[in-house]
Write a structure and sequence with these properties.
By secondary structure, the chain is of the alpha/beta class. It contains nine helices and six strands; from the N terminus they run E-H-H-H-H-H-H-E-H-E-H-E-H-E-E. Helix 3 packs across helix 4. The relative contact order is 0.17.
């Protein structure tokens, strides 16, 4: 499918634009031998809490879930130095941006595309990460689920995009590194592109993405 058929590109934030494991990696030596396990558990619980709350019809913002998930991960990893909690949260607040992001954003903008973020992140989290990455000027919209207090992949979250841009779902190219998010976007009707940064196996075989890429660069020729 030619890029010219999509004038709106919407990106998930955490894992897609920002490296969710950068926070622990910055302090890996201090955390100790179980640093990678701690980071993976932190991320897994953060997402699990978002899904559980939405299923229960409840809501706490993503920063609260990020803190609670880290507390759980630290409790599960006794070898980790628990005094690093504040440093780890501080590093997450300004997550590193992946190297491919600024260039791809710039090229898409030069083609006249409109760019947006659709994220579980709270508005303040997104503002901090986007400012740290220096990509704010490329973004037309930054949309947080906080507007409706429901987490992805609930269809009402993807509705935020079509409403904001006054566009049909098929006019939107949605990029996420999270396979479950790409599935949610496909089910909603977006052209979803799975940015499989970590070489993960395929899943959700009944709800395929339109394309699978190892990073964002492939969007320029898709």
């Amino acid at each position: 499918m030619s890029h010219s058929q999509h004038s709106i590109y919407v990106f998930d934030a955490y894992g897609t634009l920002f490296d969710v494991h950068a926070a622990v990696r910055k302090h890996a030596t201090a955390v100790g031998p179980d640093a990678q396990f701690l980071s993976e558990l932190w991320r897994a619980k953060q997402l699990e809490y978002s899904w559980m709350l939405t299923l229960m019809g409840r809501y706490r913002d993503f920063w609260a879930l990020t803190e609670e998930a880290l507390d759980y991960a630290l409790a599960r990893v006794p070898s980790a130095d628990h005094s690093l909690r504040d440093k780890l949260l501080g590093a997450y607040w300004s997550c590193d941006c992946y190297a491919d992001v600024p260039e791809v954003f710039q090229q898409l903008k030069q083609r006249g595309a409109r760019l947006a973020v659709l994220s579980n992140g709270s508005p303040k989290m997104l503002q901090a990460a986007i400012a740290n990455a220096g990509i704010g000027d490329s973004l037309d919209e930054v949309i947080s689920v906080d507007e409706i207090r429901i987490y992805k992949p609930d269809p009402r979250v993807y509705d935020l995009v079509t409403t904001r841009f006054r566009a049909f779902p098929e006019a939107i190219s949605f990029q996420s590194s999270n396979r479950w998010d790409a599935a949610g976007a496909s089910a909603y009707g977006f052209r979803s592109v799975w940015i499989n940064r970590n070489g993960m196996p395929e899943e959700y075989n009944d709800i395929r993405p339109a394309a699978v890429l190892p990073n964002l660069t492939g969007l320029l020729t898709l």
